[in-house]
Write a structure and sequence with these properties.
The protein is of the alpha/beta class. About 25% of the residues lie in helices and about 20% in strands. It is built from nine helices and 13 strands. The strands form two sheets. The protein has a five-stranded mixed barrel with strand order 1-2-3-5-4. A two-stranded antiparallel sheet has the order 6-7. A hairpin with a 5-residue loop joins strand 6 and strand 7. It is elongated, with a radius of gyration of 25 Å.
Length: about 350
């Protein structure tokens, strides 16, 4: 099924396009502008302009007797549906790019990508790494008293942060649901990560999010965590017009029916993308680590990595029954947590299983 709805062109518009194609005109730098990829539909991307070309095209004068031709003006913050040059690498939501735009068709082409500050990769079904988000500053890992927190999932995301050089922020949301049945487990989990040096925030259902707002100023953030922990509620509070923003993108792109698999850059201020954004990407929801090797996963366990070289055997499996394992000796001494060692072993085993399959 084609993703683009074909627009009926006037004769005049068709002649202009054919003339341009015959000339095979090379776009020079004066015709390029900067932009940020705000939606990724696979082969097509939405790019919002953050600068203007040095030389703007002139709007054609209609021929007498013919209807007014289609014309999408190039303006600051305008959104363009783009293809990419064939020699460019895969592009992700959040990428800063240089693009050319054709007002005659409303289409653009990404000509170059700026260097990325950070990038999150995940393997696709062909076992090739695919970027799912670029220039992410913070991965907000959200958990709550209910459903019961999954420490293994939190550790998985922390490894992703370490690998991608992205700052993690652990958010205990729905703190108002803490009761006698879950207070110890919830509080202990929060304290454990604080002792490891990770930054944390505590929020409540429909509570004051001013501290979170301050923390995320001028930052691009992805929210991750179990279903039901309140990620959507946090995003809706941070972006009260998020549905409107998504609808505007969908209206321009005419591709809104694919939003469930679309990565989107939801800006805090749509007229100033440097103020930061929430990057909503389905690629982070079931984030696998099997594309990483055992050493990369170990590096994501900051307190365990220095112990690996102290084990008796170079190929130590770090299981509870392995003789002279430095990690389990540290567990006995109360220096590290048993569950962290167990999660390390589980994630490394997951990697080896998938690499062997």
């Amino acid at each position: 099924m084609a993703l683009i709805r074909k627009r009926k062109l006037t004769d005049q518009q068709t002649r202009r396009i054919e003339k341009q194609q015959q000339k095979q005109r090379v776009v020079d730098d004066d015709e390029l502008m900067d932009g940020i990829v705000i939606a990724n539909y696979g082969k097509q991307l939405e790019v919002q302009a953050t600068s203007l070309p040095k030389r703007l095209p002139e709007k054609p004068v209609p021929i007498v007797g013919e209807p007014e031709p289609f014309w999408q003006a190039i303006t600051l913050h305008s959104i363009w549906r783009c293809h990419t040059r064939t020699n460019l690498p895969l592009i992700a939501t959040g990428d800063k790019v240089r693009l050319s735009a054709d007002p005659n068709t409303g289409l653009g082409r990404i000509e170059a990508i700026y260097d990325r500050k950070t990038v999150i990769f995940r393997p696709d079904r062909y076992h090739k790494l695919k970027p799912i988000a670029s220039n992410v500053d913070i991965l907000a890992i959200v958990f709550a008293p209910l459903p019961l927190p999954s420490a293994q999932l939190i550790d998985r995301y922390l490894v992703a942060c370490h690998t991608s050089n992205i700052k993690p922020l652990l958010i205990l949301n729905k703190a108002d649901l803490i009761n006698n049945n879950n207070i110890h487990e919830t509080q202990d989990l929060l304290n454990d990560y604080q002792k490891l040096g990770y930054e944390t925030l505590i929020t409540q259902s429909d509570g004051d999010l001013s501290e979170l707002n301050r923390y995320l100023q001028q930052k691009n953030v992805i929210f991750a965590g179990q279903s039901g922990v309140g990620k959507s509620s946090l995003v809706n509070h941070l972006l009260p017009n998020v549905e409107q923003s998504v609808n505007e993108i969908s209206t321009i792109s005419q591709l809104g029916q694919h939003t469930t698999t679309t990565s989107r850059f939801l800006a805090f201020d749509p007229t100033n993308l440097s103020q930061g954004a929430v990057i909503d990407t389905p690629g982070i929801r079931e984030y696998g680590l099997w594309h990483l090797d055992k050493d990369a996963i170990l590096a994501g366990f900051v307190e365990l990595a220095p112990l690996a070289g102290l084990c008796r055997f170079r190929d130590c499996k770090h299981t509870a029954h392995t003789p002279n394992c430095a990690m389990w000796q540290a567990v006995e001494n109360g220096e590290v947590l048993a569950r962290r060692v167990e999660n390390l072993v589980l994630l490394q085993a997951e990697t080896q299983t998938n690499l062997g399959s």
